[in-house]
Automatic annotation (TrEMBL):
Classification via InterPro entries: AB_hydrolase_fold, Esterase-like, Mycobacterial_A85_antigen
Keywords, in A-Z order: Hydrolase, Signal
Keyword Mitochondrion annotated: no
PANTHER family, alphabetized: DIACYLGLYCEROL ACYLTRANSFERASE_MYCOLYLTRANSFERASE AG85A, ENTEROCHELIN ESTERASE-RELATED
Source species of the chain: Dyadobacter sp. 676
UniProt-recorded name of the protein: Alpha/beta hydrolase-fold protein
MF terms (GO), sorted A to Z: acyltransferase activity, transferring groups other than amino-acyl groups; hydrolase activity
Signal peptide: 1-19
One Pfam match: Esterase
Length: 286
């Protein structure tokens, strides 16, 4: 009887431990008419997703250059970190969607030539698809975006382009886009030698975080909750610091974090629990 009781307890506690673990699906895909290809993405489902019938808030978590939709899964340890943050009460249970922006061409934006419209794909194909496929709350309040490096740039631009869709945005070690119009022209001329000055200016105004912040209407200053984090040894520190200064001058509320570290997964793994806690404040109605 004693042996049976011990075994029963082990089975019970094992089942409880298993029930407290989320799940990652990292080989999902959807067809894209805009990009004329299957597009892969990964999804983190919180521990109680399989046993509940409720809908969940969503975080779109963007990878950096050189990685794909599995970057946050493999190197960012999103399963372990999200499970821990939820179990400790730092984060509310949420679904995390991680798209692939490194197949075909690299990046989260529409190409200046108009022949690779990834940003259009994200908003008109990916977002509606995943929010219908999974039990995701569709309101702005329950939707956030974050990302590292190139994905931090995507987080900046997507939230600045569509503040009506995101409650919080958390760029990490972000590529903030060209700092000046001259920088934008120099970058674009490398692959577009005949580009017109007017096209450069339009692209700069849409893909520079500084330009977007400086042109931000007053009624949008509090539309998105901002959490910006960049290491003091990061090669992108200057751009992030200038964005912080621009936000302060514009009187846009935001959090700006500078910690010891560089452009590394060690830094981003340490950032993720704070990101999950920050966006959960909005999900919880802070």
């Amino acid at each position: 009887m004693k042996i049976f009781y011990t075994i029963a307890l082990a089975v019970l506690f094992g089942a409880q431990a298993s029930a407290q673990t989320g799940k990652v699906l990292d080989n999902l895909s959807l067809p894209s008419k805009l990009l004329k290809a299957e597009r892969k993405f990964a999804v983190y489902l919180p521990p109680d997703y399989a046993t509940s019938e409720r809908s969940y808030p969503v975080l779109y978590l963007l990878h950096g250059a050189g990685d794909d939709h599995t970057g946050w899964v493999q190197f960012g340890e999103v399963l372990h970190i999200a499970d821990k943050a939820i179990s400790e009460g730092r984060a509310t249970p949420m679904i995390i969607v991680m798209p692939d922006a490194n197949t075909g061409r690299r990046g989260y934006f529409n190409d200046v030539k108009g022949d690779w419209n990834y940003e259009d794909f994200f908003f008109t194909e990916l977002m509606p698809y995943v929010e219908k496929k999974f039990r995701i709350k569709g309101e702005k309040r329950y939707r956030a975006i974050a990302g590292l490096s190139m994905g931090g740039g995507g987080s900046f631009m997507y939230a600045l382009h569509h503040p009506e869709l995101f409650s919080s945005a958390c760029p990490l070690s972000a590529s903030t886009g060209p700092i000046t119009l001259e920088d934008a022209k120099r970058n674009l001329l490398r692959n577009n030698p005949d580009i017109a000055d007017s096209t450069v200016e339009r692209y700069y105004n849409r893909h520079s975080a500084l330009a977007l912040i400086n042109n931000m209407p007053d009624d949008r200053k509090k539309a998105v909750r901002w959490y910006i984090d960049c290491g003091d040894d990061d090669f992108l520190y200057e751009g992030n610091s200038l964005v912080h200064i621009a936000l302060r001058k514009k009187e846009v509320p935001h959090e700006f974090r500078v910690r010891d570290g560089g452009h590394t997964w060690t830094y981003w793994r340490e950032s993720l629990p704070d990101v999950l806690a920050f966006i959960s404040q909005a999900f919880h109605q802070y």
